[in-house]
Design goal:
Helix content is about 70%, strand content about 0%. The protein has one domain. Helix 1 packs across helix 4. The chain is mostly helical and about 110 residues long.
C-alpha cells in the first residue's frame, strides 16, 4: 500500500507534505515512505486513508485513462460539485471520502 500511495502521489504531483496531511502522519514519516524506509501498518487508520487515496487515483485513472496531465488538472482545478479544489479537499478525511464517492459515481455513468 505504501508503494502505491507514493506512486500515485508522484503521478498526481501531490507533495509529501500533502500526503502527510491526507494520511495523518508527520512529514518525516511521509519522507521515509517515499524513500522506502517506512511501511504503513495494515491494521492502521493510515492504511485505510492510504487505501482511499489509491482508490481516488484508480478511479481518476479509469475515467481519464493514462493521461496524467488531465488527472492532475482535475485534481488541482475548482470543482463546483465538490465545492472546492479536490487536491485541497482531500487533506481531510471528509474531503477525501467525498472526492472518492464523486469519482465512483462518475465512473458508474461511463
Amino acid at each position: 500500500m505504501t508503494k502505491a500511495v507514493v506512486r500515485a502521489a508522484g503521478l498526481l504531483e501531490v507533495s509529501q507534505i500533502r500526503i502527510a496531511e491526507i494520511l495523518g502522519v508527520s512529514s518525516a514519516t511521509a519522507s521515509r515512505m517515499a524513500s522506502g524506509s517506512y511501511q504503513l501498518a495494515e491494521d492502521s487508520k493510515q492504511w485505510e486513508l492510504a487505501a482511499l487515496f489509491v482508490r481516488l487515483f484508480r478511479s481518476l485513472d479509469a475515467i481519464v485513462g493514462s493521461s496524467d496531465s488531465v488527472a492532475k488538472q482535475w485534481l488541482w482545478s475548482e470543482n463546483k460539485a465538490l465545492g472546492g479544489i479536490p487536491g485541497e479537499l482531500i487533506r481531510t478525511t471528509e474531503g477525501l471520502v467525498r472526492a472518492v464517492h464523486y469519482l465512483d459515481a462518475a465512473r458508474g455513468r461511463l
